[in-house]
Every structure is written in structure tokens, then in C-alpha cells.
What we know:
This protein has helices at 7-20, 30-35, 77-88, 128-141, 146-177, 186-215, 235-242, 250-253, 266-274, 282-287; strands at 258-259, 262-263.
Amino acid sequence: MATKRIASKVHKQASRLLREGYIQREPAWYRAVLDHPPLPLPAREPPSRSPFDAPLNVPLTRPAESKKIQPLKVQYVEDEVRRQFFRDHPFEAFRQRSLVEGAAVESEHPIRGAEWTRLRQRGRNPTSEDAIRYAVNLYEHHGMDLSSAYASAVAQFRSLRSELQTARAVALTEAEHLGMEFGPSQVEITFAKEEKAFNTFRESAAESQAAETERKRWKAVVEREGPPEQWTRGQEYTRLWKEGVRPVYAPVFVEPEIKPEGLASPEQEAQRVATSADYMNLIQARRGTPTRSR
């Protein structure tokens, strides 16, 4: 009776009772427990594993002397073959493939198992997944070790791919010889789209520059005569102001006048206007008062 209290022994006890005829009908839970038995003691120990999804060359049970309790990694044979295949053929990952399923999931190919002896049985243009499944099929159904199965699958895959490329090259040469003209390739179409986008950027930059030029059309441009003066950070202007020398802007606004005593020189007229505090008569003009001559 003690064994019935242990969860891992219940289905075994039920099996013995059924075998001896003490139980006439199987309990409703019997088959489910046989398919998925409870964990053995101790309860933390992982259940037994089948070699279907376990790593290769790894024991499926924990050694008795091992004190480390952890489940085994889930790893399929296809994972190892696929990893090695794309390591040897990295450019196969760039081939376009449709990942969208139709109304129903595609059924398994009829040629499989012991009947699948050559990769060409599934077509002259095999995919990378066909080569991987063929290698696994040789390993599981034809008694070959994994290295030999992979080498055979890769050799047949490369042979079929070479035949296909040779056939396409010959067909292209024959078509061009007969006068067939082909349109641009996908690479050329992509380059044309990139060039069109670059031209759009150039046109927009030219339009922006033209608009900026239009906005700056009426900007004053001062043309200086002679070499540019050295910038003194305003120190020269401050020194002249302290010495009583006033800046002279009169030659820009004053025109020479003809008087009875003669034509005054521009320097004299500029000096006379510069001595006035309001040589442009701006203060009186703003106040609306008439200008008085001194």
C-alpha cells in the first residue's frame, strides 16, 4: 500500500493490477499517464528523454555520481546540419524564398524515407532545405553516419546547382544569338531607382539655393577700395573717440556745391559737415520742425 502513495508508482501498480485481473477496465487516466509519466524521484530530476530531440553523443540520463540537476538542451539533428550547411554556403541565405503559406499547409513530399536515395528525385533545382532534409534522411533511414550523409548531400546539391547554372547560361546565349533582347535586370532597376532619388536631392538643393539667392537679392553689398583694414576689436575707434577725432561719413552723403568763392573741395565740405552734431538733419525731420542753419 505504501507504493500507491508515491505518484511515480501509481501507474505501475495499476499495470500490475490489470495484468492480474484485479481491475477489469483501464482507468480513464491510464493511457495519458503512460504517455507522460510523472517525474521520478527526486522530483527535481528531469524526466527521461528520447534521442529524437536530444543532443548527439550525450547520455539521456543523469549519472548517479552527478549532483547537478538540469534538463538537457532541446536540439534536433536538422539544427546541426543546417548550421554547418550555411557555414559552408553563406550566400544561399540571400536567395529569395516565400514564407507565406497558402490556404493549407503543404503536405510532405511523397518521396521520403527509404525511397529517397538521390537528391534529384525532388527536382533539378533543390533548395537549401531540400539538401538538409536529404542529409538527415540518409542518416536516419540509410544507416549512414552524419558526416558521410552531409558530404553526400552537399556533393549532389552542388552538382545539381552547377548543371542548372550551365543550362541557364547556354539558354541565354542561344536566345541572344537568335535576336532576343532582354530588359534591365533587377540590379540595374535598383541602381536606376537610386540614381533617380539622387537626382531628386540635387534638384531640391538647387531650388533651395535659388530661393535663398532670391531672398538675398536686395541685400546691400559694400565694395571697399584698397586693402582690407585690420580688425582691432573696436580699440582703434575708442582711441580716436578719446582723442576727439570723430568718424567722417560725409563723403557718402554730401555733394560738392558751387559757391561765389569757388568750388569747395570734398575734404573741406566733409570736415564742415562732420563738425555738426546732426549733419544729416535727422532730428528736426523726425520732430517735424524746420531745419535751422547755424
